[in-house]
Amino acid sequence: MDRQQLVFDGYEKQIYSTADPDTVILHFKDDITAYDNIRRAKLTGKGAVNCGISALLFAHLGGKHIATHFIEKISADELLCRKVTPIPIELVVHNYIAGSLADKLDLPEGMKPSTVIYDLRYNSSELGDPLINDSQAVALGIASFSELGEMYDTARKINSCLVKLFDAAGLKFVDMKLQFGKTSDGALIVSDEISPDTCRIWDADTDEKLDKDRFRHDLGNIVDAYGSVYQKLKNILG
Fold first, then answer.
1. Strands 85-86 and 171-182
2. pLDDT tops 90 at residue 36
3. 107-133: per-residue pLDDT in tens?
């Protein structure tokens, strides 16, 4: 399916319309950004790796009867997806303490909490994507309580599925950021991407970071690290 109009041009991805009003093409750029685009670089091959990882994971979730916007991978760096109206919420799932959560709670990075931690962030770059609670999300008109409940249920299912998958691949699934949208018929489904840009992924034996923290903390070999995640997942999923 061919691209038509560019309808969204983000820091790291673009969305194009297609001849079908219910589908779009998601194009993964080679750009990488951090700290609200204060830091930026272009890394050859990064878009293709993230596209490949997202396609593998979305297909795996589909096989577990979890609805996502993914239809098929149509090129090295493009996915054909169902068109959705985005819900401006990031649902963040923490299996381990890491990043800003470690700073906020004054806990050591890598600590495994007694329960999975779920955070909501209001997806607003102007406000710095602030943490919000369920009542605030409903008061803002972002989502209803029932929609939030559906999002949490879906996040729990995805997390359970991916923790097992990554463990089998020799990887530690530290945390992830999920986004959701509504289709033209009102279905609430997972959208965006699932990749080392939106998850923290560590080597299970060494705790080596294999995600965007390599860019944030100047650890180097970013595309190689992402590629190692891709290869390990392909070894499991085929």
1. antiparallel
2. no
3. 999 999 999 999 999 999 889 899 999
Both structure tokens of 1: 């399916």
33 forms beta bridges with: 40
Integer Cα distance of 198 and 205 in angstroms: 22
Q: Please check whether residue 53 is in contact with residue 194, taking contact to mean a CB–CB distance below 8 angstroms.
A: yes
Helix, strand, coil distribution of the chain in percent, nearest 5? 35, 30, 35
**Contact residues for 223 (Cβ-Cβ < 8 A; gap 6+):** 43, 44, 45, 46, 49
| Letter string b/e over residues 74-105, b meaning 16 or more CB atoms within 10 A of that residue's CB | beebbbbbbbbeebbbbbbbbbbbbbebbeee
> Which H or E run includes 167?
helix 145-168
pTM: 0.96
